[in-house]
Amino acid sequence: MNRFFFLVLIIASELVFVSPGVESASTNVNIEEVTKIGAIVDANSQMGKQAITAMKIAVQNFNSDSRNHKLSLQIRDHNRDPFQAATAAQELINKEKVKVIAGMETWEETAVVAEIASRVQVPILSFAAPAVTPLSMSRRWPYLIRMASNDSEQMKCIADLARKYNWRRVAAIYEDNVYGGDSGKLALLAEALQNVSSSEIQSRLVLPPISSISDPKEAVRGELKKVQDKQSRVFIVLQASLDMTIHLFTEANRMGLVGKDSVWIVTNTVANALDSLNTTVISSMEGTLGIKSYYSDDSSPYKEFSALFRRNFTSEYPEEDHFHPSIHALRAHDSIKIITEAIGRLNYNISSPEMLLRQMLSSDFSGLSGKIRFKDGELLNADTLRIVNVVGKKYKELDFWLPNFGFSKTSSKHNVGDISSNIAAEGFTGPVIWPGNLINRNPKGWAMPSNQEPMRIGVPTRTFFEKFVVIKDDPLNGNSNDKNLRYDGFSIELFRLVVDHLNYDLPYEFVPHDGVYDDLINGVYDKVNYFNYHDKLLFKKKKRLCLVIE
Protein backbone atom coordinates (compact mmCIF):
# COMPACT_ATOMS: atom_id res chain seq x y z
CA MET A 1 0.00 0.00 0.00
CA ASN A 2 1.56 3.27 -1.00
CA ARG A 3 2.04 6.27 1.21
CA PHE A 4 -0.92 8.15 -0.21
CA PHE A 5 -3.61 5.60 0.65
CA PHE A 6 -1.90 4.82 3.96
CA LEU A 7 -2.44 8.49 4.82
CA VAL A 8 -6.11 8.22 3.84
CA LEU A 9 -6.64 5.25 6.15
CA ILE A 10 -4.92 6.95 9.09
CA ILE A 11 -6.95 10.13 8.75
CA ALA A 12 -10.22 8.26 8.28
CA SER A 13 -9.58 6.01 11.31
CA GLU A 14 -8.91 9.01 13.55
CA LEU A 15 -12.05 10.87 12.49
CA VAL A 16 -14.61 11.55 15.21
CA PHE A 17 -17.92 10.76 13.58
CA VAL A 18 -20.67 13.31 13.95
CA SER A 19 -24.36 13.30 13.19
CA PRO A 20 -25.00 14.68 9.70
CA GLY A 21 -28.01 16.68 10.87
CA VAL A 22 -28.14 20.46 10.89
CA GLU A 23 -27.75 22.63 13.95
CA SER A 24 -30.98 23.21 15.82
CA ALA A 25 -32.71 26.29 14.45
CA SER A 26 -34.75 28.72 16.46
CA THR A 27 -38.49 28.56 16.03
CA ASN A 28 -38.50 32.34 15.82
CA VAL A 29 -38.75 33.09 12.12
CA ASN A 30 -37.18 36.50 12.69
CA ILE A 31 -33.92 34.90 13.77
CA GLU A 32 -31.64 34.14 10.87
CA GLU A 33 -30.58 30.59 10.15
CA VAL A 34 -26.92 30.23 9.26
CA THR A 35 -25.47 27.46 7.12
CA LYS A 36 -21.73 27.02 7.37
CA ILE A 37 -19.76 26.21 4.23
CA GLY A 38 -16.14 25.09 4.41
CA ALA A 39 -13.41 26.06 1.95
CA ILE A 40 -9.99 24.40 1.82
CA VAL A 41 -7.53 26.22 -0.46
CA ASP A 42 -3.90 27.23 -0.77
CA ALA A 43 -4.36 30.63 0.82
CA ASN A 44 -0.85 31.80 -0.05
CA SER A 45 -1.03 31.17 -3.80
CA GLN A 46 -2.67 33.52 -6.24
CA MET A 47 -5.00 30.71 -7.28
CA GLY A 48 -6.12 30.31 -3.68
CA LYS A 49 -6.44 34.04 -3.13
CA GLN A 50 -8.61 34.34 -6.22
CA ALA A 51 -10.79 31.46 -5.07
CA ILE A 52 -11.27 33.05 -1.65
CA THR A 53 -12.22 36.41 -3.17
CA ALA A 54 -14.66 34.81 -5.62
CA MET A 55 -16.36 32.67 -2.97
CA LYS A 56 -16.70 35.63 -0.64
CA ILE A 57 -18.41 37.61 -3.40
CA ALA A 58 -20.87 34.75 -4.05
CA VAL A 59 -21.63 34.41 -0.33
CA GLN A 60 -22.13 38.17 0.03
CA ASN A 61 -24.51 38.19 -2.93
CA PHE A 62 -26.58 35.40 -1.41
CA ASN A 63 -26.67 36.98 2.04
CA SER A 64 -27.76 40.30 0.55
CA ASP A 65 -30.70 38.68 -1.24
CA SER A 66 -31.76 36.27 1.51
CA ARG A 67 -33.67 37.64 4.50
CA ASN A 68 -33.88 34.69 6.90
CA HIS A 69 -31.09 32.40 5.76
CA LYS A 70 -27.42 33.28 5.65
CA LEU A 71 -24.20 31.56 4.68
CA SER A 72 -21.01 31.59 6.72
CA LEU A 73 -17.81 30.80 4.81
CA GLN A 74 -15.20 28.98 6.90
CA ILE A 75 -11.80 29.10 5.15
CA ARG A 76 -8.85 26.83 5.90
CA ASP A 77 -5.37 26.77 4.34
CA HIS A 78 -3.97 23.41 3.23
CA ASN A 79 -0.56 24.91 2.39
CA ARG A 80 -0.13 22.52 -0.58
CA ASP A 81 -0.10 19.54 1.76
CA PRO A 82 -2.75 16.78 1.50
CA PHE A 83 -2.21 15.93 5.18
CA GLN A 84 -3.06 19.51 6.17
CA ALA A 85 -6.06 19.39 3.84
CA ALA A 86 -7.28 16.29 5.67
CA THR A 87 -6.73 17.93 9.05
CA ALA A 88 -8.63 21.00 7.88
CA ALA A 89 -11.53 18.82 6.74
CA GLN A 90 -11.70 17.16 10.16
CA GLU A 91 -11.81 20.53 11.88
CA LEU A 92 -14.46 21.92 9.56
CA ILE A 93 -16.68 18.86 9.97
CA ASN A 94 -16.25 18.21 13.70
CA LYS A 95 -15.81 21.72 15.08
CA GLU A 96 -17.48 24.08 12.63
CA LYS A 97 -20.23 21.63 11.61
CA VAL A 98 -20.05 22.68 7.96
CA LYS A 99 -22.60 21.18 5.57
CA VAL A 100 -20.49 21.37 2.42
CA ILE A 101 -16.76 21.72 1.68
CA ALA A 102 -15.43 23.35 -1.49
CA GLY A 103 -11.90 23.83 -2.79
CA MET A 104 -8.88 21.50 -3.14
CA GLU A 105 -6.89 22.48 -6.22
CA THR A 106 -5.09 19.15 -6.67
CA TRP A 107 -6.35 15.61 -6.86
CA GLU A 108 -4.12 14.46 -3.98
CA GLU A 109 -5.82 16.95 -1.66
CA THR A 110 -9.25 16.07 -3.01
CA ALA A 111 -8.85 12.33 -2.48
CA VAL A 112 -8.03 12.53 1.23
CA VAL A 113 -10.78 15.07 1.92
CA ALA A 114 -13.32 13.04 -0.06
CA GLU A 115 -12.42 9.92 1.91
CA ILE A 116 -13.14 11.69 5.19
CA ALA A 117 -16.23 13.60 4.09
CA SER A 118 -17.92 10.65 2.40
CA ARG A 119 -17.81 8.68 5.65
CA VAL A 120 -19.83 11.34 7.43
CA GLN A 121 -21.97 12.30 4.43
CA VAL A 122 -20.69 15.82 3.80
CA PRO A 123 -20.81 16.83 0.11
CA ILE A 124 -17.50 17.91 -1.42
CA LEU A 125 -17.10 20.31 -4.36
CA SER A 126 -13.59 19.86 -5.72
CA PHE A 127 -11.84 22.20 -8.15
CA ALA A 128 -9.70 19.26 -9.31
CA ALA A 129 -10.31 15.97 -11.10
CA PRO A 130 -8.05 12.96 -11.71
CA ALA A 131 -6.38 12.64 -15.09
CA VAL A 132 -8.31 9.40 -15.61
CA THR A 133 -11.68 8.89 -13.94
CA PRO A 134 -11.83 5.44 -12.25
CA LEU A 135 -15.02 3.48 -12.86
CA SER A 136 -15.49 2.93 -9.13
CA MET A 137 -15.12 6.58 -8.12
CA SER A 138 -18.84 7.26 -7.58
CA ARG A 139 -19.14 4.18 -5.38
CA ARG A 140 -16.02 4.95 -3.37
CA TRP A 141 -16.69 8.67 -2.88
CA PRO A 142 -20.44 9.15 -3.42
CA TYR A 143 -20.40 12.63 -1.87
CA LEU A 144 -17.68 13.98 -4.16
CA ILE A 145 -18.58 16.41 -6.97
CA ARG A 146 -15.83 17.44 -9.39
CA MET A 147 -15.93 20.98 -10.79
CA ALA A 148 -13.37 20.04 -13.45
CA SER A 149 -13.08 17.53 -16.28
CA ASN A 150 -10.39 14.88 -16.60
CA ASP A 151 -7.42 15.40 -18.90
CA SER A 152 -8.37 13.14 -21.80
CA GLU A 153 -9.65 15.94 -24.06
CA GLN A 154 -6.61 18.08 -23.36
CA MET A 155 -4.28 15.26 -24.40
CA LYS A 156 -6.28 14.80 -27.61
CA CYS A 157 -5.78 18.50 -28.32
CA ILE A 158 -2.01 18.07 -27.95
CA ALA A 159 -2.11 15.05 -30.26
CA ASP A 160 -4.00 17.13 -32.82
CA LEU A 161 -1.26 19.75 -32.62
CA ALA A 162 1.37 17.06 -33.20
CA ARG A 163 -0.53 15.80 -36.24
CA LYS A 164 -1.12 19.33 -37.56
CA TYR A 165 2.60 20.14 -37.54
CA ASN A 166 3.87 16.60 -38.19
CA TRP A 167 5.85 16.32 -34.95
CA ARG A 168 6.64 12.63 -34.67
CA ARG A 169 8.47 12.51 -31.32
CA VAL A 170 7.95 14.53 -28.16
CA ALA A 171 9.46 14.89 -24.70
CA ALA A 172 6.97 14.91 -21.81
CA ILE A 173 7.80 16.93 -18.69
CA TYR A 174 5.92 16.84 -15.42
CA GLU A 175 6.49 17.74 -11.81
CA ASP A 176 5.97 14.74 -9.60
CA ASN A 177 3.64 14.99 -6.65
CA VAL A 178 4.68 14.14 -3.13
CA TYR A 179 3.08 10.70 -3.41
CA GLY A 180 4.66 9.78 -6.72
CA GLY A 181 3.12 9.30 -10.12
CA ASP A 182 2.01 11.50 -12.97
CA SER A 183 -1.73 11.09 -12.23
CA GLY A 184 -2.30 9.28 -15.50
CA LYS A 185 -1.44 12.24 -17.74
CA LEU A 186 1.52 10.46 -19.30
CA ALA A 187 -0.53 7.40 -20.23
CA LEU A 188 -3.29 9.59 -21.68
CA LEU A 189 -0.78 11.54 -23.77
CA ALA A 190 0.87 8.40 -25.10
CA GLU A 191 -2.49 6.92 -26.07
CA ALA A 192 -3.69 10.13 -27.72
CA LEU A 193 -0.47 10.56 -29.70
CA GLN A 194 -0.65 7.00 -30.97
CA ASN A 195 -4.34 7.15 -31.88
CA VAL A 196 -4.42 10.60 -33.44
CA SER A 197 -1.02 11.29 -34.93
CA SER A 198 1.03 8.06 -34.72
CA SER A 199 3.59 10.05 -32.75
CA GLU A 200 5.38 8.85 -29.66
CA ILE A 201 6.96 10.02 -26.43
CA GLN A 202 10.71 9.80 -26.90
CA SER A 203 11.69 11.07 -23.45
CA ARG A 204 10.00 11.80 -20.17
CA LEU A 205 11.47 14.19 -17.64
CA VAL A 206 10.26 13.83 -14.07
CA LEU A 207 10.88 16.90 -11.93
CA PRO A 208 10.77 16.33 -8.16
CA PRO A 209 8.17 18.24 -6.12
CA ILE A 210 9.62 21.69 -5.60
CA SER A 211 8.76 21.51 -1.91
CA SER A 212 11.03 18.48 -1.53
CA ILE A 213 14.26 19.92 -2.99
CA SER A 214 16.67 22.59 -1.78
CA ASP A 215 18.17 23.43 -5.18
CA PRO A 216 15.46 23.45 -7.89
CA LYS A 217 17.88 24.93 -10.42
CA GLU A 218 20.23 21.95 -10.25
CA ALA A 219 17.37 19.45 -10.25
CA VAL A 220 15.89 20.97 -13.41
CA ARG A 221 19.27 21.12 -15.16
CA GLY A 222 19.88 17.48 -14.34
CA GLU A 223 16.66 16.43 -16.04
CA LEU A 224 17.09 18.71 -19.05
CA LYS A 225 20.57 17.30 -19.69
CA LYS A 226 18.90 13.99 -20.50
CA VAL A 227 17.37 15.42 -23.67
CA GLN A 228 20.33 17.42 -24.95
CA ASP A 229 21.59 14.46 -26.97
CA LYS A 230 18.07 13.49 -28.10
CA GLN A 231 16.73 14.59 -31.45
CA SER A 232 13.24 15.60 -30.37
CA ARG A 233 12.75 19.29 -29.56
CA VAL A 234 9.00 19.18 -28.87
CA PHE A 235 8.57 19.66 -25.12
CA ILE A 236 5.16 19.17 -23.49
CA VAL A 237 4.79 20.35 -19.90
CA LEU A 238 2.02 18.14 -18.53
CA GLN A 239 1.91 19.52 -15.02
CA ALA A 240 4.05 21.89 -12.98
CA SER A 241 3.62 24.36 -10.17
CA LEU A 242 4.21 28.01 -10.99
CA ASP A 243 7.48 28.00 -9.05
CA MET A 244 8.72 24.94 -10.93
CA THR A 245 7.59 26.44 -14.24
CA ILE A 246 9.75 29.49 -13.59
CA HIS A 247 12.84 27.34 -12.94
CA LEU A 248 12.08 25.09 -15.92
CA PHE A 249 11.95 27.83 -18.53
CA THR A 250 14.84 29.75 -17.00
CA GLU A 251 17.16 26.75 -17.20
CA ALA A 252 15.85 25.60 -20.58
CA ASN A 253 16.72 29.01 -22.01
CA ARG A 254 20.19 28.90 -20.50
CA MET A 255 20.79 25.46 -22.01
CA GLY A 256 19.65 26.55 -25.47
CA LEU A 257 16.54 24.38 -25.54
CA VAL A 258 14.15 27.25 -26.23
CA GLY A 259 15.38 28.25 -29.68
CA LYS A 260 14.50 27.98 -33.34
CA ASP A 261 12.92 24.69 -34.36
CA SER A 262 12.05 23.88 -30.75
CA VAL A 263 8.44 23.64 -29.58
CA TRP A 264 7.11 24.19 -26.07
CA ILE A 265 3.51 23.37 -25.13
CA VAL A 266 2.05 23.88 -21.65
CA THR A 267 -1.21 22.35 -20.48
CA ASN A 268 -3.87 24.21 -18.55
CA THR A 269 -2.16 23.70 -15.18
CA VAL A 270 0.35 26.29 -16.39
CA ALA A 271 -1.58 28.11 -19.14
CA ASN A 272 -4.53 28.95 -16.87
CA ALA A 273 -2.07 30.76 -14.60
CA LEU A 274 -0.28 32.81 -17.29
CA ASP A 275 -2.04 35.92 -16.03
CA SER A 276 -0.37 35.35 -12.66
CA LEU A 277 3.20 35.38 -13.99
CA ASN A 278 5.28 38.53 -14.06
CA THR A 279 6.68 39.91 -17.30
CA THR A 280 10.16 38.48 -16.73
CA VAL A 281 8.84 34.93 -16.47
CA ILE A 282 6.47 35.40 -19.40
CA SER A 283 9.29 36.64 -21.63
CA SER A 284 11.32 33.48 -20.88
CA MET A 285 8.39 31.47 -22.31
CA GLU A 286 8.20 33.40 -25.59
CA GLY A 287 6.96 31.22 -28.44
CA THR A 288 5.25 28.73 -26.14
CA LEU A 289 1.82 27.38 -27.03
CA GLY A 290 -0.60 27.15 -24.13
CA ILE A 291 -3.85 25.23 -23.74
CA LYS A 292 -6.33 27.13 -21.57
CA SER A 293 -9.82 26.32 -20.39
CA TYR A 294 -12.08 28.69 -22.29
CA TYR A 295 -14.77 30.86 -20.75
CA SER A 296 -16.77 33.77 -22.15
CA ASP A 297 -15.65 37.17 -20.89
CA ASP A 298 -18.15 39.32 -22.79
CA SER A 299 -21.38 38.47 -20.94
CA SER A 300 -23.03 40.94 -18.57
CA PRO A 301 -22.75 38.62 -15.50
CA TYR A 302 -19.03 38.18 -16.14
CA LYS A 303 -18.41 41.91 -16.55
CA GLU A 304 -20.29 42.69 -13.34
CA PHE A 305 -18.42 39.99 -11.44
CA SER A 306 -15.06 41.00 -12.91
CA ALA A 307 -15.45 44.63 -11.85
CA LEU A 308 -16.40 43.64 -8.29
CA PHE A 309 -13.69 40.99 -8.18
CA ARG A 310 -10.94 43.40 -9.19
CA ARG A 311 -12.03 45.91 -6.57
CA ASN A 312 -12.19 43.35 -3.76
CA PHE A 313 -9.05 41.49 -4.79
CA THR A 314 -6.82 44.57 -4.96
CA SER A 315 -8.21 45.76 -1.63
CA GLU A 316 -7.54 42.47 0.16
CA TYR A 317 -4.30 41.55 -1.62
CA PRO A 318 -2.56 44.81 -2.60
CA GLU A 319 0.73 42.97 -3.05
CA GLU A 320 -0.61 41.05 -6.05
CA ASP A 321 0.08 42.54 -9.49
CA HIS A 322 -2.48 40.57 -11.49
CA PHE A 323 -6.09 41.03 -10.46
CA HIS A 324 -8.15 39.72 -13.37
CA PRO A 325 -10.28 36.68 -12.43
CA SER A 326 -8.98 33.38 -13.76
CA ILE A 327 -10.91 30.20 -14.54
CA HIS A 328 -10.18 29.12 -10.95
CA ALA A 329 -11.97 32.19 -9.58
CA LEU A 330 -14.95 31.58 -11.85
CA ARG A 331 -15.25 27.95 -10.77
CA ALA A 332 -14.98 28.96 -7.12
CA HIS A 333 -17.82 31.45 -7.60
CA ASP A 334 -19.92 28.85 -9.43
CA SER A 335 -19.35 26.32 -6.63
CA ILE A 336 -21.11 28.62 -4.16
CA LYS A 337 -23.96 29.15 -6.61
CA ILE A 338 -24.37 25.36 -6.88
CA ILE A 339 -24.76 25.24 -3.11
CA THR A 340 -27.14 28.19 -2.80
CA GLU A 341 -29.40 27.01 -5.62
CA ALA A 342 -29.56 23.54 -4.07
CA ILE A 343 -30.45 25.02 -0.68
CA GLY A 344 -33.12 27.16 -2.30
CA ARG A 345 -34.75 24.18 -4.02
CA LEU A 346 -34.91 22.49 -0.61
CA ASN A 347 -36.63 25.55 0.88
CA TYR A 348 -33.55 25.95 3.11
CA ASN A 349 -34.24 22.64 4.85
CA ILE A 350 -30.89 20.87 4.64
CA SER A 351 -31.40 18.31 7.39
CA SER A 352 -30.68 15.54 4.90
CA PRO A 353 -27.14 15.50 3.43
CA GLU A 354 -28.32 13.02 0.81
CA MET A 355 -31.05 15.39 -0.39
CA LEU A 356 -28.57 18.27 -0.47
CA LEU A 357 -26.16 16.19 -2.53
CA ARG A 358 -28.94 15.16 -4.91
CA GLN A 359 -29.98 18.76 -5.46
CA MET A 360 -26.37 19.84 -6.06
CA LEU A 361 -25.92 17.09 -8.64
CA SER A 362 -29.11 18.20 -10.40
CA SER A 363 -27.67 21.68 -11.05
CA ASP A 364 -28.34 22.96 -14.55
CA PHE A 365 -27.39 26.57 -15.21
CA SER A 366 -24.93 28.72 -17.12
CA GLY A 367 -22.24 29.79 -14.69
CA LEU A 368 -19.36 32.18 -15.11
CA SER A 369 -17.04 29.26 -15.94
CA GLY A 370 -19.46 27.69 -18.43
CA LYS A 371 -22.37 25.27 -18.42
CA ILE A 372 -22.86 23.65 -15.01
CA ARG A 373 -24.38 20.20 -15.32
CA PHE A 374 -23.16 16.94 -13.81
CA LYS A 375 -23.08 13.29 -14.74
CA ASP A 376 -21.62 10.65 -12.42
CA GLY A 377 -20.29 13.39 -10.15
CA GLU A 378 -18.33 15.17 -12.87
CA LEU A 379 -19.04 18.14 -15.13
CA LEU A 380 -20.99 16.79 -18.08
CA ASN A 381 -19.61 19.14 -20.69
CA ALA A 382 -15.91 18.79 -21.46
CA ASP A 383 -13.96 22.01 -21.56
CA THR A 384 -13.71 24.04 -24.71
CA LEU A 385 -10.00 24.75 -24.99
CA ARG A 386 -8.34 27.95 -26.17
CA ILE A 387 -4.92 27.84 -27.84
CA VAL A 388 -2.74 30.78 -26.81
CA ASN A 389 0.71 31.90 -27.91
CA VAL A 390 3.18 33.63 -25.59
CA VAL A 391 4.53 36.69 -27.39
CA GLY A 392 6.95 39.09 -25.74
CA LYS A 393 5.76 39.83 -22.22
CA LYS A 394 2.18 38.72 -22.76
CA TYR A 395 0.18 36.14 -24.68
CA LYS A 396 -2.28 36.30 -27.55
CA GLU A 397 -5.27 34.09 -28.22
CA LEU A 398 -5.28 31.96 -31.36
CA ASP A 399 -8.13 29.55 -32.02
CA PHE A 400 -10.27 27.01 -30.20
CA TRP A 401 -10.24 23.26 -29.80
CA LEU A 402 -13.65 21.64 -29.36
CA PRO A 403 -14.19 18.12 -27.93
CA ASN A 404 -15.28 15.65 -30.61
CA PHE A 405 -14.60 18.26 -33.28
CA GLY A 406 -11.05 19.58 -33.19
CA PHE A 407 -9.68 22.99 -34.07
CA SER A 408 -12.15 25.74 -34.78
CA LYS A 409 -12.18 29.47 -35.31
CA THR A 410 -15.26 29.78 -33.07
CA SER A 411 -15.99 28.59 -29.54
CA SER A 412 -19.12 26.66 -30.54
CA LYS A 413 -19.33 23.76 -32.96
CA HIS A 414 -22.80 24.99 -33.96
CA ASN A 415 -21.27 28.09 -35.54
CA VAL A 416 -18.21 26.63 -37.22
CA GLY A 417 -19.63 26.55 -40.76
CA ASP A 418 -17.54 25.00 -43.47
CA ILE A 419 -14.33 26.98 -43.10
CA SER A 420 -13.29 25.94 -39.61
CA SER A 421 -12.35 22.47 -40.74
CA ASN A 422 -9.64 24.02 -42.88
CA ILE A 423 -7.61 25.24 -39.91
CA ALA A 424 -5.32 22.24 -40.17
CA ALA A 425 -4.39 23.29 -43.68
CA GLU A 426 -4.56 27.07 -43.35
CA GLY A 427 -3.00 27.47 -39.93
CA PHE A 428 -4.21 29.38 -36.91
CA THR A 429 -5.73 32.83 -37.05
CA GLY A 430 -2.82 35.25 -37.08
CA PRO A 431 0.85 34.23 -37.23
CA VAL A 432 2.27 31.98 -34.52
CA ILE A 433 5.47 33.28 -32.94
CA TRP A 434 7.59 30.22 -32.20
CA PRO A 435 10.62 30.01 -29.88
CA GLY A 436 13.63 31.86 -31.23
CA ASN A 437 11.27 34.39 -32.86
CA LEU A 438 10.60 31.95 -35.70
CA ILE A 439 7.77 33.38 -37.82
CA ASN A 440 8.15 32.60 -41.51
CA ARG A 441 7.91 28.82 -41.16
CA ASN A 442 6.82 26.15 -38.70
CA PRO A 443 9.43 24.58 -36.41
CA LYS A 444 10.70 21.13 -37.32
CA GLY A 445 10.55 20.01 -33.72
CA TRP A 446 13.82 18.11 -33.89
CA ALA A 447 17.49 18.98 -33.56
CA MET A 448 19.67 19.02 -36.65
CA PRO A 449 22.74 16.77 -36.78
CA SER A 450 25.95 18.69 -36.05
CA ASN A 451 29.63 18.16 -36.75
CA GLN A 452 29.92 16.82 -33.20
CA GLU A 453 26.86 14.57 -33.65
CA PRO A 454 26.58 13.81 -37.39
CA MET A 455 23.92 11.63 -38.94
CA ARG A 456 25.28 8.07 -39.04
CA ILE A 457 24.31 6.02 -42.09
CA GLY A 458 24.86 2.28 -42.11
CA VAL A 459 26.12 0.80 -45.39
CA PRO A 460 26.39 -2.99 -45.96
CA THR A 461 29.86 -4.12 -47.06
CA ARG A 462 28.53 -7.17 -48.91
CA THR A 463 25.82 -6.61 -51.52
CA PHE A 464 24.49 -8.51 -54.53
CA PHE A 465 23.97 -5.40 -56.65
CA GLU A 466 27.06 -3.20 -56.66
CA LYS A 467 25.40 -0.70 -59.00
CA PHE A 468 23.26 0.37 -56.04
CA VAL A 469 25.77 0.26 -53.17
CA VAL A 470 29.46 -0.62 -53.21
CA ILE A 471 32.34 0.01 -50.81
CA LYS A 472 35.86 0.14 -52.20
CA ASP A 473 39.30 0.91 -50.86
CA ASP A 474 40.15 4.60 -51.27
CA PRO A 475 42.86 6.12 -49.07
CA LEU A 476 41.94 9.64 -50.30
CA ASN A 477 38.34 9.49 -49.19
CA GLY A 478 37.60 11.77 -46.23
CA ASN A 479 33.86 11.57 -45.83
CA SER A 480 33.63 8.47 -43.70
CA ASN A 481 34.74 7.31 -40.31
CA ASP A 482 37.02 4.84 -42.09
CA LYS A 483 39.39 6.91 -44.25
CA ASN A 484 40.35 3.90 -46.38
CA LEU A 485 36.89 3.31 -47.82
CA ARG A 486 35.01 4.90 -50.69
CA TYR A 487 31.22 4.66 -50.90
CA ASP A 488 29.68 4.58 -54.34
CA GLY A 489 26.68 3.37 -56.30
CA PHE A 490 23.30 4.71 -57.36
CA SER A 491 21.84 4.88 -53.83
CA ILE A 492 24.90 6.70 -52.49
CA GLU A 493 24.95 9.22 -55.33
CA LEU A 494 21.21 9.85 -54.99
CA PHE A 495 21.61 10.52 -51.28
CA ARG A 496 24.47 12.98 -51.89
CA LEU A 497 22.45 14.74 -54.57
CA VAL A 498 19.53 15.23 -52.19
CA VAL A 499 21.84 16.56 -49.46
CA ASP A 500 23.35 19.07 -51.90
CA HIS A 501 19.89 20.48 -52.62
CA LEU A 502 18.95 21.00 -48.96
CA ASN A 503 18.76 24.59 -47.77
CA TYR A 504 20.71 23.72 -44.63
CA ASP A 505 23.85 21.81 -43.70
CA LEU A 506 23.45 18.13 -42.90
CA PRO A 507 26.64 16.65 -41.44
CA TYR A 508 26.75 12.89 -41.96
CA GLU A 509 29.10 9.94 -41.98
CA PHE A 510 28.89 6.51 -43.58
CA VAL A 511 29.41 3.52 -41.29
CA PRO A 512 30.33 0.16 -42.88
CA HIS A 513 28.37 -2.86 -41.69
CA ASP A 514 29.92 -6.30 -42.18
CA GLY A 515 27.03 -8.35 -40.77
CA VAL A 516 23.80 -9.56 -42.30
CA TYR A 517 21.35 -7.00 -43.65
CA ASP A 518 18.66 -7.91 -41.12
CA ASP A 519 21.02 -6.96 -38.27
CA LEU A 520 21.66 -3.60 -39.91
CA ILE A 521 17.92 -2.91 -40.07
CA ASN A 522 17.47 -4.02 -36.47
CA GLY A 523 20.26 -1.69 -35.43
CA VAL A 524 18.40 1.25 -36.92
CA TYR A 525 15.20 0.21 -35.16
CA ASP A 526 16.86 -0.31 -31.78
CA LYS A 527 18.65 3.04 -31.89
CA VAL A 528 16.00 5.31 -33.30
CA ASN A 529 12.71 3.53 -32.48
CA TYR A 530 11.12 6.06 -34.80
CA PHE A 531 9.00 4.29 -37.36
CA ASN A 532 6.42 1.80 -36.31
CA TYR A 533 8.32 -1.46 -36.50
CA HIS A 534 5.51 -3.70 -37.63
CA ASP A 535 4.14 -1.20 -40.15
CA LYS A 536 7.43 -0.48 -41.88
CA LEU A 537 9.16 -3.84 -41.79
CA LEU A 538 7.68 -7.09 -43.04
CA PHE A 539 8.81 -10.56 -42.18
CA LYS A 540 9.26 -12.82 -45.18
CA LYS A 541 8.54 -16.54 -45.04
CA LYS A 542 12.24 -17.26 -44.56
CA LYS A 543 12.41 -14.79 -41.64
CA ARG A 544 14.19 -12.19 -43.73
CA LEU A 545 13.41 -8.51 -43.48
CA CYS A 546 12.74 -6.16 -46.35
CA LEU A 547 12.29 -2.40 -46.18
CA VAL A 548 9.02 -1.07 -47.51
CA ILE A 549 9.34 2.42 -49.02
CA GLU A 550 6.07 4.34 -48.62
- Helix proportion of residues, in percent? 25-40%
Strand content: 15-25%
Biggest beta-sheet profile: 8 strands, mixed
Strand order of the largest sheet: 7-6-8-9-10-14-15-16
List the uncertain runs: 15-29, 418-422, 530-550
Distance between the termini: 49 Å
CATH topology of the largest domain: Rossmann fold
Which structural class should the secondary elements be placed in?
Answer: alpha/beta
- Count of DSSP strands: 22
Shape: elongated
Tell me the Rg in angstroms: 28 Å
Q: Number of helical runs? A: 18
Which CATH class of the largest domain? Alpha Beta
The CATH architecture classification of the largest domain is: 3-Layer(aba) Sandwich
Mean pLDDT: 82
Brief digest:
It is found in: Membrane. This protein has 550 residues and is of the alpha/beta class.
Outline the structure in words.
With 550 residues, the chain is α/β, with parallel strands linked by helices. It folds into three domains: 3-24 and 33-150 and 297-379, 3-Layer(aba) Sandwich (Rossmann fold), CATH 3.40.50; 152-294 and 384-437, Response regulator (Rossmann fold, 3-Layer(aba) Sandwich); 455-547, no CATH class. Helix content is 36%, strand content 21%. It has 18 helices and 22 strands. It has an eight-stranded mixed beta sheet with strand order 7-6-8-9-10-14-15-16, with helices on both faces. A five-stranded parallel beta sheet has the order 2-1-3-4-5, with helices on both faces. The protein is elongated. The protein starts with a helix and ends with a strand. 37% of the residues are buried. InterPro entries: ANF_lig-bd_rcpt, GABAb_receptor_plant_PBP1, Ionotropic_Glu_rcpt, Peripla_BP_I. Keywords: Membrane, Signal, Transmembrane, Transmembrane helix. Residues 1-24 form the signal peptide. This is Receptor ligand binding region domain-containing protein. It holds the Pfam family ANF_receptor.
